Amino acid sequence: MRELELIYEGKSKLIYSTDSNDRVVIRFKDDATAFYNIKRAKIENKGKMCCAISSMLLSYLNKNGVNTHFVEQVDAESQLCRVVEHIPIEVIVRNVIAGSMAKRLGINEGIVPENTIFDLCLRSADLGDPLVNDHHVVALGLASYEDLQTIYEISAKANSLLVDLFNKAGIQLVDFKIEFGRAEDGTLVLADELTPDTCRLWDIDSGERMDKDRFRRDLGRVRETYEEVAKRLSNVLK
To answer: Would you say the pTM of this structure is higher than 0.90?
Structure first.
């Protein structure tokens, strides 16, 4: 399958059309950004590590009954993915209180709630990706209540699978954010990356952060930490 022209460039990825109408190539970049692009840097091999990690995780979900847009990894930095109609809603799945939720509600990071928390954000950089609820999403015509129920069910199943996998790798899955799209047949599929850029990961033994917070908070060793996440997942999935 041939990669044709660039159709989208984001902060961390490039998307190319192919000679198949229902497939695109997604290429990961070495760029690291935070605080709505205010903080920026290039980190050597970050694109390769994110591609490897996301490919492993999405393939794992596909094999375990969670449909995603991922088809296969085509080279060190690129994935072949299904074309979907993107739904501009981000689902944040929280197993541990951390990050923006802790700050917004004045709760200490690290508290484990009895329930899994699902937040919805409207994907709009101009508006700062505001929190929305189910009724907002339906009123905006972005999805139906039935769609949202399916999205929650897929998110919960993905979370259960990923928590178990990361535990085996000695990593606590604190939270993660994902987006969805509608495939050609109308079904809803997970259509996003799963990387330390989009997942908050803590080492189970030491509590050391193994995600993008290392870049956000100037903790250093970003590349080495991403490489460690990839290594641990690869060992577990052998």
So the answer is: yes
